[in-house]
Write a structure and sequence with these properties.
three-stranded antiparallel β-sheet; 9 strands; 2 helices; 195 residues; Coagulation Factor XIII, Chain A, domain 1; six-stranded mixed β-sheet
Length: 195
């Protein structure tokens, strides 16, 4: 009897240790147009590091643009594990073809439905150089779309439609920010488009 109790206590302790050692499970990523995380997760882009197994986990501090991830680390949410998402790959990320004034649908696949403050979408300014890391100075500070959620949980699949601005040419980047209502974090996604 004593051996069973010792074994049970040992198993419970091992399970508790394992549970705290594993990072929180999945959250969400953009599937359309394909985000950098999604492209890595689908195996379309190689040499992505750990993000290939966790495209839904690009989480970092919220408060963008006044706070949040540091410049040059926006696509990875400031998390060093996802650093390959910040590598501009000499402008070689696959792009989705778009036109000025187009209605672009952005679709999230959400695996953990957090209470949400808002979804916001920013786009790079005219003259953006796709061979450089994304910074606040590269982005128009006014979102192309803001979707307030008032603390509601999003569904497992969620789409928003943004109108793309005029005056952009070539390779541009859209930064999506999913602000969580009840934590200090947000989820970040980068999509590469070509006008």
């Amino acid at each position: 009897m004593r051996k069973r109790n010792i074994l049970a206590v040992g198993l419970a302790a091992a399970a508790a240790t394992l549970a705290t050692a594993i990072p929180a499970s999945s959250h969400g990523f953009i599937t359309t147009p394909p985000s950098r995380a999604g492209l890595c997760g689908a195996g379309i882009v190689k040499k992505c590091g750990q993000i290939q197994w966790e495209p839904q986990s690009v989480e970092g501090p919220k408060g963008f643009p006044a706070a949040g991830p540091a410049d040059g680390k926006l696509c990875a949410g400031g998390d060093a594990r996802w650093a390959p998402l910040d590598d501009p790959r000499a402008g070689g990320w696959p792009t989705t073809k778009v036109t000025a004034g187009q209605q672009l649908t952005l679709t999230w696949s959400i695996e953990a439905r957090h209470a949400t403050t808002s979804f916001r979408y920013f786009i790079t300014k005219p003259g953006y150089d796709a061979t450089t890391k994304l910074t606040r100075a590269n982005l128009d500070p006014t979102p192309i779309l803001t979707v307030p959620m008032g603390g509601k949980q999003p569904p497992a699949t969620l789409s928003h439609t943004a109108t793309l601005p005029a005056g952009l040419t070539g390779h541009q980047v859209i930064l999506a920010v999913w602000d969580i209502a009840d934590t200090g974090n947000a989820f970040y996604q980068c999509m590469d488009v070509t006008f």
